[in-house]
Amino acid sequence: MLKNLLLPALLSLAFACQAQVNFTANDQVFPYMGKFRYGANLQYYPGWTDLLIADIAMGKASLPGIGVDAFRGSLTEEFLENWGYGIRVDYYEYYESLGAGDELVIAGYPGPVHRSTEFFCAGQSSELFANLYEPIWDGGANGTPINEENYFANYMWQMVGTYKDLVRFWEIWNEPDYTLNTALSFAPPGTPGNWWENNPDPCDLAIKAPIFNYVRLLRIAWEVVKTVDPDAYVCTGGIGNPAFLDAMLRNTDNPMDGSINGNYPQKGGAYFDVLSYHSFPHFDGSLRDFNGLGWDYHRHSDRAAEGLVSRKELFRQVLAAYGYDGNTFPEKLWVVSETNLPRVSFHNDFLGSVEAQRNFTIKALVTAQQHQIEQLYFYNIADNVPEGQAVWEFQVMGLLQNLTGFTYPNFVANESAVALKTTYGFIGNKSINTSLTNLLDLPDDVKGAAFSDAQDTVFVLWAATQTDFSEFANTTYSFPQEMHIDSAYYWKWDYAAIPATYETAGEISLTGAPIFLKNKPLNPRDTSTLALDKKMEWAVFISPNPARDGFWINMDSDKTKNFDINLFDSQGKLVCSVLENERVQSGQQRIFVKKDLQEGLYWIKIADAAGEKRVVKLVVRE
C-alpha cells in the first residue's frame, strides 16, 4: 500500500514479480475468517468529517460509541483522481485504531475525464468508464503490469494497492440494478420484456449500459484485486433484484451479446466472491403473502428480520440454478450492505415505527449471524434530514437523529442506536453457537440464539411478533432441563442507556423486545453504557498523513499520563524522540513535529507509563 504512496516505480517493481491471478470464483472462494461486523453506511453531514462520525459511532477514549465496528464508504475514481489516491489512508487507519476492520468500500464512478461517451440509451451516455475493453494488462509496457489506458483497471490497481491493508471487501458499484421500470425488473418469466428471459434495457439500469458491461467491471475488478491482494473479496454492488443476478450469471463480458468465446471465457459468476445485497423489508414484499384473492400482511419486526433471509434465499436459488451450490462451483459468501426499517411511515402500506425499528435492529443482527451472513450494514449512521422535514421513509432510518445543528461531540441517539450498543456490548465479540442454539429447542412463538466466546455464553431471546402493525408479543420460556440453567440474569434492549440487571428463575417472561441472558452474574466489564463506556484509555492519530513539512500528533486521553513518543524509519532505526516520559494532560492535545524528513515510510511508536502502546504509520512526501 505505502509503496504506492511513495514511489510508483517501486510499486511497479514490487508487483512485477507477482503473478497475475490464474483462477476464478468458479475455482475457489476463500472462506471468511474474520468476525461478524456491526456496520453502518457513511453519509455526509455538514460540519462533520468522517473522523468525527467515527468517534461517535465506534467510540474512543472520551466517547462511548454506539456499537458500530465497520463502515461502508466509497472511494470513487472521481474523488481519488482529484485529491490523490492516498487521501483517505489516514482515515481508514484511524477507523482501525478504533476497532474497525475488514472494511467494505464501494468502487467505481469515473471522473469526467475517464467517463464513457458511449450512448446505449437515447439522450444519456453510459455512467461507466471509457476504455473498458482495452486490455487489462500490458506486461509492463509503461512501467507497471496494468494497462493505464484501461481506466477502470488502472483505478482499481492504484486504489487496491493503496488500501489493501485496510479494506477487505470491494463492492463494485452501488445498486447497478437500480431501476424505475419495476414492471419488467420484477416481472415473472413469460412476461414480455421480463429480465429473467431478456437482458435489461440499458435505459432501465442506473449504469445506463448493457449487463455485459457490468460483467466486464466484475472481471476487471477480479483480476486486479486478486493480483494485488489475494485475501480481499470482490462483491456485487449491493443488488436487490434476483432477475438482475440471473442476467449476470447467464452472460459473459462479451460486448456483442454476452456469449462465450476465446476472449470472453466465463460468465459473470466467475468474477465475484460475495453476493452483497440490499434488504429493505418495509417495501420489498417481505411483509406480505398472496392468498389467492389478496394480500395477507405481516408488518412487524420478526417478519422484517425474516425478510433478510427470504431475500437471501431468492438470490441463493438463482445461484444454485447456475451451479453455485458447492457442488459444481464454490458457494458465494454473503453481505447485507444496506438494511433497516424506517422510524416513521409515510405510506399506509409501509411498516414504520420507533419500536419496530429498535426491535429490528437486534433481531436483524441475530438473524444475520444465524444464516451465515458475514457483515450487516445499517442505513444510515444518522437520519438524512431532521424528522420534522422528512417526507419519505429512507430519510428516517438513522441510528442517530439528523446531525444538522449539532456540534461534535453532541448527538441524539435513536432507540435503534441504544439497541445496537446494547447488542454489541453483549455479543459483539462473540460468535453464534449453533449447537447451543439448537439445544434451546425454541418453540414457534420464541425466537433467539446463543452466542459464545472463550469466557461465557449469552442468550438472546424474545417472543415472536405475529400481529400486523404490532410489536406486541407475550409468552414464556424455560431452558431445557439438560442445560442445567435454573436461574438467569437478564438485561433489556436499553441496557446501554439504563444499566439495570434483572433476575429470573424457572419460566422467563418474554415480549417482542429481545432480552440478553446469562446463567451467571454480569461481570461489570462485559458491557458498558453509552455514558460510561471507555473503549480505550487513549487514542492517537496523525495529520496530515501523508505529510510534507511537519505533522501533528493528535492525542485524546481520559487521564493525564506520561508518554514516550518515538519516530522510526522504515528500517526500524530511531530518527528522533518526540517525548520522553513527558506528561500529557487529559482530553484532546496536539503536538506538532517539525523535522526535515526524507520522502518515505516512517513509524511512530507511542507508549504510556503503564505499557499500553500504539504504532502508527506515517508517510512523508517531498
Question: What's a concise summary of this model?
Answer:
This protein is α/β, with parallel strands linked by helices and 622 residues long.
- Largest sheet data: 8 strands, parallel
Form type: globular
In percent, how much strand structure appears in the residues?
A: 15-25%
Strands, count: 25
Radius of gyration: 25 Å
Structural overview:
With 622 residues, the protein is α/β, with parallel strands linked by helices. Helix content is 23%, strand content 23%. The protein is built from 13 helices and 25 strands. An eight-stranded parallel β-sheet has the order 5-4-3-2-1-10-9-6, with helices on one face. The radius of gyration is 25 Å and the shape is globular. The chain starts with a helix and ends with a strand. The model is unreliable at 1-18 and 522-535 (pLDDT under 50).
Strand-helix topology:
Elements: H1 2-6, H2 8-16, E1 37-41, H3 50-58, E2 70-74, H4 77-83, H5 89-97, E3 103-107, H6 151-163, E4 167-172, H7 182-185, H8 211-228, E5 233-235, H9 242-250, E6 274-279, E7 288-290, E8 295-297, H10 301-321, E9 333-339, H11 354-370, E10 375-378, H12 415-427, E11 431-432, H13 434-440, E12 446-452, E13 457-463, E14 474-477, E15 487-491, E16 502-505, E17 508-511, E18 515-518, E19 538-543, E20 551-557, E21 561-569, E22 574-584, E23 587-593, E24 600-608, E25 613-620
Parallel strand pairs: 1-2, 1-10, 2-3, 3-4, 4-5, 6-9, 9-10
Antiparallel strand pairs: 7-8, 11-12, 12-13, 13-18, 14-17, 15-16, 15-18, 19-20, 20-23, 21-22, 21-24, 24-25
Helix pairs in contact: 6-8, 9-10, 10-11, 11-12
